[in-house]
Design a protein that fits this description.
Strand content: under 5%
Number of helices: 4
Helix content: 55-70%
Distance between the termini: 90 Å
Structural class: mainly alpha
Order of helices and strands: HHHH
Radius of gyration: 29 Å
Shape: flat
Length: 143
């Protein structure tokens, strides 16, 4: 079995050579960039977005947690769409078992979508009913 250790090390040298070349190129590029790059310090150098527009306000914007929830739902449903497209590409090979499987999968997607709609996970806009109710409370109008 000692012959296997030598044989495995023999196959490892191209990977080590490649890693060494990549590391050397990385160091060389960073060094040349530092040496040949511009070294100046203007008034706007440390400001974000050096586009000639004066900065106003903070670059830190707060997004509602609802925004991130909708973004996650988009990614989830987008990945599920890829699965359905792949199923469509193999439609003839999968037969009726594949059709039943994707029908169950789509059924689960519909149930989850209805649930998320019901709990308000997809409501990211302004709720007109809440605004109207609050307006009526403030003005003393009742209907």
């Amino acid at each position: 079995m000692p012959g296997n250790e030598i044989h495995s090390n023999h196959q490892l040298w191209p990977l080590l050579l490649y890693a060494g070349i990549v590391f050397f190129l990385l160091v060389a590029i960073l060094f040349l960039s530092y040496i040949l790059g511009q070294h100046h310090h203007d008034r706007a150098t440390d400001k974000p977005y050096e586009g000639g527009i004066e900065q106003s306000g903070s670059a830190r914007l707060r997004f509602s947690a609802q925004f991130y929830l909708v973004a996650m739902l988009f990614v989830i449903f987008d990945v599920e769409a890829v699965f359905i497209i792949l199923w469509a590409l193999g439609f003839y090979e999968l037969g009726w078992f594949g059709y039943a499987g994707v029908a169950i999968f789509i059924g689960q997607l519909v149930v989850v979508l209805i649930y998320e709609w019901g709990i308000g996970a997809l409501d990211i806009g302004v709720d007109g009913k809440k605004i109207l109710r609050r307006y009526r409370e403030l003005t003393g109008l009742t209907s």
